[in-house]
């Protein structure tokens, strides 16, 4: 069948697929209450489209390429409504990475030079972006007849999406790893299930009505970035930059030349057993530094969770209060414990680390130490640039405001006469 290039295509037949997965898994995937419609209420209206548009006259095409997307009603318009969309994809003057064979893990990505925390490592326009709920649900429920039917149905959509890609992009998609060769997944679906990264948080920034339930997950695949291997102590994170509609790999901490660049495919705060269970559908057993000694790692992560409540503003305010009955060093010592555990476990992508940095910044502001406040602020902003999807706007504004004028904050210098020894030791952020 001949289709005009760049046109949108109606994606039909999803309802029966969703009903099938509901029947097999007990999950509620379709809207039941017609009086409370949501963007996913009518899956029949999802559209297959190219972003940016492609033309028969290739000279008119976006030089950064185009992504095949399956989107909800209104989502495409919201993406195009961004100022100046699409912005050029940021590129490095020279590559900071290379792809190399890794024993037992196919290709992996390695740093070709030293990379700083918060630095962009690699960016690309995704090959595909679309709903991922059925992908994740598929990983959680047994593959029975109903799932097979759903996969076959989605395989038809993926065939259309892949067929719309440029020939070399079609080859790139088909060359990606597939860890679902023996569970009934058709090849194109298996590749999507193996290589997709969640982009729901980023999509929600331009399309706020995207529900926050796991059935509204969206996933994207990158020709290069889907090659990055997993670690439970990742040194980088992949995010979707919506203004340039690009996947971007950003360093979470300094990375040495020659070091493998890794991201996490699962919640790094889970226990060893939970992580391995979540990673099983990817067809490997993680043997990262953390997984080599699971008892020690589980204990440290449990300790971290138990310390998390010390990172609230409430504890900082208590520390500031001159009538507090606690020794001046009590709370800063708790911060020190958090820092040590995060560093031992390599958990720089977690909210615990950015919350810790924010409280440390507040401590130095209360001590009136401008240089250390600035260092904390720079580290926080580096982390925020690497974990963009999880950062609430208020936290980013607060970090930027403190960086611009630390002495404007009400607690500036309030503890200037008190310099707890443990806070001094924290200086090297
Ligand atoms: Zn691991």
**Distance, first to last CA:** 59 Å
Number of strands: 13
- Which assembly state applies to the chains in this document? single chain
Mean pLDDT: 83
- Element pattern in H and E: EHEEHEEEEHHHHEHEEEEEHHHHHHHHH
* Number of helical stretches of at least 4 residues: 16
Write out the strand line-up for the largest beta sheet, numbering strands in chain order. Answer: 1-2-3-7-9-8
Instruction: Kindly provide the radius of gyration, computed on alpha-carbon positions and rounded to a whole number of angstroms.
Output: 24 Å
Query: Which structural class best describes the helix and strand composition?
Result: alpha+beta
Strand content: 5-15%
Bound molecules: zinc ion
Q: Biggest β-sheet: count, sense, barrel?
A: 6 strands, mixed
Spans with pLDDT under 50 lasting ≥5 residues?
1-7, 10-18, 20-44, 137-141
Coarse morphology: globular
As a percent range, the share of helical residues equals 25-40%
Domain SET: 85-266
Region (Disordered): 26-45
Protein name: SET domain-containing protein
Organism: Obba rivulosa
Notes on the structure:
Helix 1 (14-25) packs antiparallel against helix 4 (145-163), helix 12 (330-345) packs antiparallel against helix 13 and helix 14 packs antiparallel against helix 15 (393-404). Among the domains are: 1-85 and 130-192, no CATH class; 293-425, no CATH class. The strands form three sheets. Strands 1-2-3-7-9-8 form a six-stranded mixed β-sheet. A four-stranded mixed β-sheet has the order 4-5-13-10, with no helix packed on it. Strands 6-12-11 form a three-stranded antiparallel β-sheet. With 429 residues, it is of the alpha+beta class. The chain is globular. Strand 11 and strand 12 form a beta hairpin. Residues 1-7, 10-18, 20-44 and 137-141 have low confidence and may be disordered. Helix content is 39%, strand content 13%. Residues 85-266 form the SET domain.
